[in-house]
Write a structure and sequence with these properties.
By secondary structure, this protein is mainly alpha-helical. The protein is built from 23 helices and 3 strands. Helices cover about 70% and strands about 0% of the residues. Helix 16 packs antiparallel against helix 17. The radius of gyration is 30 Å and the shape is elongated.
Length: about 500
C-alpha cells in the first residue's frame, strides 16, 4: 500500500501542474476564436454594404492576431465560417497539421460553437484561404503553403467582386512569397502575368499594383533588369492606392535606375521609398537606406553621419559606414580592405557589383584631395599616393588626371614635359551659379513633397452621397475600435 501511494502521488501532482496551463491555453484559444468571429462579421457587413474599408480593417486586425493562431483555432473557425460538407472546408482542413490528442481534447471542449453562416460568402471563403495560408507560412510549412496558395489563386480566377479585391491582393502577395520561400519563383511568372492582365481587364487597381510589384520582384530576383524595365514602362500608370505597394514600387524602380546608371533618378526614388515606408517596416527601410547610400556615393556625395545612426539601423549599416569612410578619405587600399572584409554582406545585399563601380570614385576623391593640397605635384607622386598597383602607374595616373580634368572633377592642367599636375587657384564658389542651383533643388524638393501630400489625401468613394446617418457611422467606428482594443488587451494579458 505504501508503494502504491508513493507511485500515485507524482501522477496526481502532474495532473495538477498541467491543469492551469491547459486552462490558460483554452482561454487564449477561445478568445482568439471569438476575435476571428468578430472579424468574420465585419467582412460579412462589408460584403453586404459593399464597403471595402471594412474589409481592409478586417485584414489589418487579422495581422494583429496572426501570432496567436493555432491549428485547433483555425480548424474551429473553418467549421464556423464554411459549410461543413463544402469543398473549400475539406480542402483547407486537409492543409492543417494534426495536433496531439491531449491538446485536441482540450481545444475541442472549449472551441465548439454553432455555425452562424448557412451558406458561404465568397469574401469569407477567400478570407479562410488567406487565414490558412498565413498560418502555414508562420509555421514554416512551406510545401503546404505552396499548395494552399495555388488552390486559392485557382479559386480567385472565378470571382469578380470589388469587395474581394483587398483579400485577393493579400493572397497574391503570399502566393508569390510561398514560392519564393521554396526557391521556385520562376514557375509562377506566367501565372502572375495572366493575373495582372485579368486585373487590368476587371479594373482591379489594387490588384494591378500588387501584381506589378510582384512581377518586378520576380524579375529582379533573377537579375532580369531589362525585362523588368520593359514591363514597368508598358504597364498601366501606378496610381498608388496603397502606400505599402507604392513604397515597394519606388524601391524596385530605384534598383532598376541604379543598374541603368541613372543615379539621380535612383536616389530620388530610394529616398522617397525610405521616407514613405511605415515605421514598422524596419527591414524594408534598412534595404532602402543601403541602396540609397551606394547611389549617393556613386553620385560623388558623402551621406551624413546621422544616416548611419538611425534607431535600430546602426549595426546593419556598419559595413556601409566603413565603406563611406574609405570613399570620403579617398584611400584605395582601405577601400579594398573594407570590400574584402564585408564581401559576404555585400553579396547577400546584392550590392557587390555596385561597390566595384565605386573604385573610380575613390580614386577621383583622392585625386581631388591631392589637387587641393598641392599646387604642383608629379604624376609619380600621385600614383604613389593613390596606391595604383599596375605595370605602369605613372601612365595610369596621367590618364586618370586627364579624365578628371575633362569631367570637371578638378581644376588643373598637366605639364607633360615635366610630368607634373599643376592645380589652379580655388575660386570663390559664391561667385558662380552653384549656390543658386542647390537652393533651387531644395525648393523643388519641398514643393514636390507638398504636392505628393495633397495627392495622398483620401476620400471614401461616393462621399457626396450620404449612405448612413452620422450616428450609425459613429456606432460602427466605435465597434471597430473596441474590437482592436480587445485584441491589444489580450496581447498585454498574454505577456
Amino acid at each position: 500500500m505504501t508503494q502504491d501511494v508513493e507511485m500515485m502521488e507524482p501522477q496526481a501532482a502532474a495532473v495538477v501542474a498541467t491543469a492551469p496551463s491547459n486552462s490558460v491555453s483554452s482561454a487564449t484559444a477561445s478568445s482568439t476564436l471569438q476575435h476571428l468571429k468578430e472579424i468574420a462579421a465585419l467582412i460579412e457587413n462589408g460584403a453586404y454594404t459593399k464597403e471595402v474599408r471594412r474589409i481592409v480593417r478586417a485584414v489589418r486586425l487579422t495581422m494583429m492576431l496572426r501570432r496567436k493562431l493555432r491549428a485547433p483555432v483555425v480548424a474551429a473557425f473553418l467549421t464556423f465560417a464554411l459549410p461543413s460538407g463544402s469543398e473549400a472546408h475539406s480542402r483547407l482542413s486537409s492543409y492543417l497539421p494534426k495536433e496531439d490528442e491531449h491538446e485536441m481534447d482540450v481545444d475541442t471542449a472549449t472551441l465548439v460553437g454553432q455555425v452562424s453562416f448557412k451558406y458561404s460568402l465568397p469574401e469569407l471563403e477567400i478570407y479562410c484561404y488567406l487565414l490558412v495560408l498565413i498560418f502555414l507560412i508562420d509555421q514554416k510549412r512551406y510545401n503546404e503553403a505552396k499548395a494552399c496558395s495555388s488552390a486559392s489563386i485557382a479559386r480567385l480566377k472565378n470571382m469578380n467582386r470589388r469587395t474581394v479585391d483587398v483579400l485577393a491582393s493579400r493572397l497574391y502577395f503570399y502566393y508569390s512569397y510561398s514560392y519564393e520561400l521554396t526557391n521556385s519563383l520562376a514557375e509562377i511568372r506566367g501565372t502572375l502575368l495572366a493575373l495582372h492582365r485579368v486585373a487590368s481587364l476587371r479594373h482591379d487597381e489594387l490588384g494591378q499594383e500588387t501584381l506589378l510589384n510582384l512581377l518586378l520582384r520576380n524579375y529582379l530576383h533573377y537579375n532580369l533588369y531589362d525585362q523588368a524595365e520593359k514591363l514597368r514602362s508598358k504597364a498601366p500608370h501606378f496610381e498608388a492606392h496603397s502606400n505599402q505597394q507604392f513604397c515597394r514600387y519606388l524601391f524596385y524602380l530605384g534598383k532598376i535606375r541604379t543598374i541603368q546608371l541613372e543615379y539621380t533618378d535612383a536616389k530620388e526614388s530610394l529616398l522617397q521609398a525610405a521616407r514613405k515606408a511605415p515605421a514598422g517596416a524596419h527591414g524594408f527601410r534598412i534595404q532602402c537606406n543601403k541602396w540609397a547610400i551606394i547611389v549617393r556615393l556613386l553620385l560623388g556625395e558623402i551621406p551624413e553621419k546621422t544616416v548611419f545612426m538611425q534607431k535600430g539601423m546602426k549595426k546593419a549599416l556598419t559595413p556601409y559606414f566603413e565603406l563611406t569612410n574609405a570613399v570620403r578619405i579617398g584611400d584605395l587600399e582601405l577601400f579594398r580592405t573594407v570590400a574584402e572584409k564585408f564581401a559576404g554582406t555585400f553579396s547577400s545585399d546584392r550590392t557587390h557589383n555596385l561597390i566595384v563601380r565605386l573604385r573610380h570614385n575613390v580614386i577621383r576623391t583622392g585625386l581631388r584631395n591631392i589637387s587641393i593640397s598641392y599646387s604642383r605635384i608629379s604624376l609619380a607622386d600621385i600614383a604613389r599616393k593613390l596606391r595604383l598597383n599596375s605595370d605602369n602607374p605613372v601612365a595610369d595616373a596621367e590618364s586618370i588626371v586627364a579624365k578628371a580634368i575633362r569631367d570637371g572633377a578638378i581644376d588643373a592642367t598637366i605639364d607633360h614635359s615635366n610630368g607634373w599636375m599643376v592645380s589652379k587657384e580655388t575660386g570663390n564658389v559664391y561667385s558662380t551659379n552653384e549656390p543658386q542651383i542647390v537652393f533651387n533643388s531644395r525648393i523643388a524638393f519641398c514643393l514636390n513633397m507638398h504636392n505628393e501630400a495633397v495627392r495622398a489625401l483620401r476620400f471614401p468613394p461616393n462621399s457626396h452621397k450620404e449612405k448612413e446617418s452620422a450616428e450609425k457611422r459613429r456606432e460602427r467606428q466605435q465597434q471597430e475600435q473596441e474590437l482592436a482594443k480587445h485584441i491589444e488587451e489580450d496581447d498585454d494579458d498574454e505577456f
